[in-house]
Task: inverse folding
């Protein structure tokens, strides 16, 4: 009962402020203040204030909020774990199937025992001067430049 009285008083005060604001030729601000001041009155008339008052002092309602919080926590946890693992079960199964190698001839994966086609590396020159561009010249010659 007291909540309805307080909400009605707040609405009346807000409408009074809106009237003063409109008198000062600030109509847009006056309409905005009037809109805000009608919200508490609307909440009283729809019964939301009674519902909130009953909920605030009800242990069953607070237990319900606790269950909702636990539910949200479980959803968030499973979502986090799913992202770390890489998706849903179907997605992981498809990824494993795609990662399996296809059938290959037995000799295709055997390493070559012969010597490679690269020539042996040349030893580095003993002294490296500032104007020594022999490495750069070798690279350019290799590419035909």
Result:
């Amino acid at each position: 009962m007291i909540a309805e009285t307080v909400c009605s008083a707040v609405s009346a005060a807000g409408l009074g402020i809106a009237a003063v604001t409109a008198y000062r030729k600030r109509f847009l601000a006056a309409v905005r203040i009037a809109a805000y001041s009608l919200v508490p009155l609307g909440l009283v008339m729809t019964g939301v204030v009674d519902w909130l008052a009953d909920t605030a002092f009800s242990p069953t309602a607070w237990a319900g909020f606790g269950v909702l919080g636990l539910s949200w926590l479980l959803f968030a946890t499973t979502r986090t774990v799913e992202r770390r693992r890489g998706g849903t079960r179907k997605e992981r199964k498809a990824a494993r199937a795609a990662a399996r190698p296809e059938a290959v001839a037995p000799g295709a994966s055997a390493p070559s025992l012969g010597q490679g086609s690269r020539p042996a590396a040349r030893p580095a020159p003993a002294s490296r001067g500032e104007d020594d561009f022999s490495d750069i010249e070798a690279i350019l010659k290799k590419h035909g430049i």
User: Anything to note?
Assistant: DSSP finds six helices and no strands in the chain. Helices lie at 2-23, 27-46, 48-56, 59-85, 89-99, 134-142.
